[in-house]
Amino acid sequence: MSHIGSDKSTYADRVERQCRWGGALFEAMDFAPRTEARDVIVGWLLDDGDKQRTHRAHLFNPMYKLCAVAVGPHPRAGTCTVALFAAQVVHKAPPGKPKRSSSQGAKNVLDADFCRKVFTLHNKVRMNPASFIVVLEKGLARFKGNVLYRAD
Q: Cα separation of 91 and 80, whole Å?
């Protein structure tokens, strides 16, 4: 599982099909059947398995002014949540008439409300990192060794 698409495209390639971007661009991915947007954000904040904590660093980077989130089915993980962060974007198509790429893209979005919640929580964490301390502390109790278990 990687940031390379089934058509061998990078996330920058996929974004450039829809718009031009500038400054910085980053894609965060979560491969798990999450039912709570909070769990996606916690996963990115913990960034387990990445010694450099790349997702965490990008989540808090003030350079990123824009974020788009999608969630859809994934053949191996069941579900994949993807967020794209950009410093700036200039749309190629007129607003209201998005261009569709040949890849799966927006047609696989399962839950627009879930995507909005991930987007909102990302902004909350970015604007006030201390606001998530309580959530992270509660999450510590869900660890069994190196594995984080669901709350239910």
A: 25
Euclidean distance between CA atoms 68 and 71, whole angstroms: 11
For the whole prediction, is pTM greater than 0.85?
no
Identify the CA nearest to 59 among candidates 1, 5, 150, 136. Answer: 136
Q: How many domains does the chain have?
A: 1
Domain region containing 48: 11-92+101-148
Specify burial of residue 94 (Cβ count, 10 A radius: 0-12, 13-18, 19+).
Answer: exposed
Judge whether 2 lies within some domain. Answer: no
Residues 28-73 pLDDT 10s: 988 887 778 888 888 888 877 778 888 888 888 888 888 888 888 8
The amino acid present at 78, given as its one-letter code, is G
pLDDT confidence band for 1 (50 / 70 / 90): low
DSSP label of 65? -
